[in-house]
Amino acid sequence: MSIPKVVAQAKRPSLGEILCRDLHEQILPKHLKLVPQLNEVYELELAYYESLILSEEEVLRNGAYFASVGGQPTRHFLICQGEPLRLAEHSSSRLKSFFKTNQFKTGYATHGLFPYRGKFHPQMIKGLINIMGLKPGETVLDPMMGSGTVLIEATLMGINSVGIDASPFCQFMARAKVDGLRLPPKYVKAALDDFDSTFRYFSEKVEKTEPAVLRVQGSLFDQAAKKAPPQSALPRGCNRKDVQDYLLLAFLDAKGYAERSQRKSFREQFRAILERYYFAAEKIQTVLNGFQEELGTAKALEGDARNLPLEANSVDGIIFSPPYSFAIDYLENDEYHLKSMGVNISRLRQGMIGLRGGGLREKYRLYIEDMTKVIAECSRVLKPGKICSIVVGTNNNQLSKILSVDPEAVPGIDETLAEIGQAHGMGLVRRIERQITGMANTMRSEFIVMLQKTNHRG
Question: Which fold has domain 120-168+295-453?
Answer without folding.
Answer: Rossmann fold (3.40.50)
